[in-house]
Specification:
Length: about 220
């Protein structure tokens, strides 16, 4: 098996941002007098921001005047997080530089809006390392639908079957697999468990370091 391109998810995979989203969500929902229920949060993991906003508005109608207002508030909260809280996930810097140094075609395919993707990538110094970045904001459907991964593959110029997707969530993993890609999943245990991937994906790793070791062991992208 070999691949021609790598397509990265961002939140929870490259950036340790899921706890930041959770913190912002709790504060926003608490500000309207609600307690954020875990079963509601589970519905929002890995989905697009507008879909998140519709779920929150349905369960907590006093949070914002509309789903659009929720989008604007949660985005502002994320962009306003203290810079020291924006940290890479283990192995993210190493695997990005591995791909950049070997000139492996690569892109980000994220459920976050463009402004959030660019904000995180810029703060972590990856702007030149991953110049191609795509948001499900512009797709007809968000993850777990395959749209964003199909679009990213098209922009890179490779068939989906020749692309390796890296994901952290069940919804994102389903999206990549539905696009016809091989997907390596690194569960972000702040929101998912290993059991959540059972029956979805057999290629589950503890960290991006383990995936990088797999590349080197099997000669991927040699």
């Amino acid at each position: 098996m070999s691949f021609d391109a790598i397509i990265f998810d961002m939140d929870g995979l490259l950036v340790d941002s899921e706890p930041l989203w959770h913190e912002a969500e709790i504060e926003m929902i608490a500000g309207a007098g609600y307690t954020y229920a875990e079963d509601v949060r589970e519905q929002t993991i890995g989905v697009r921001v507008d879909e998140f906003a519709r779920i929150i508005h349905r369960h907590y109608p006093k949070v914002g005047e509309s789903p659009q207002a929720i989008i604007e508030e949660i985005t502002a909260r994320i962009l306003g997080m203290p810079l020291e809280k924006i940290q890479p996930r283990p192995g993210a810097e190493a695997i990005i530089r591995f791909a950049a140094e070997r000139e492996i075609p690569r892109a980000i395919a994220s459920s976050s809006w463009d402004c959030v993707i660019d904000h995180f990538v810029d703060l972590l110094g990856w702007d030149a390392l991953i110049p191609q970045r795509y948001s499900a904001q512009h797709m007809a459907r968000g993850k777990p639908a395959p749209d964003i991964y199909l679009y990213a593959a098209e922009q890179l110029g490779y068939a989906p079957a020749r692309c390796l997707a890296l994901e952290d969530s069940p919804a994102g993993t389903q999206s990549a697999l539905a696009a016809g890609m091989t997907c390596y999943s690194v569960p972000d245990l702040s929101h998912s468990t290993l059991d959540d991937f059972a029956g979805i994906n057999n290629s589950v790793y503890d960290s991006l370091y383990d995936i990088l070791a797999e590349f080197e062991r099997k000669g991927f992208f040699a």
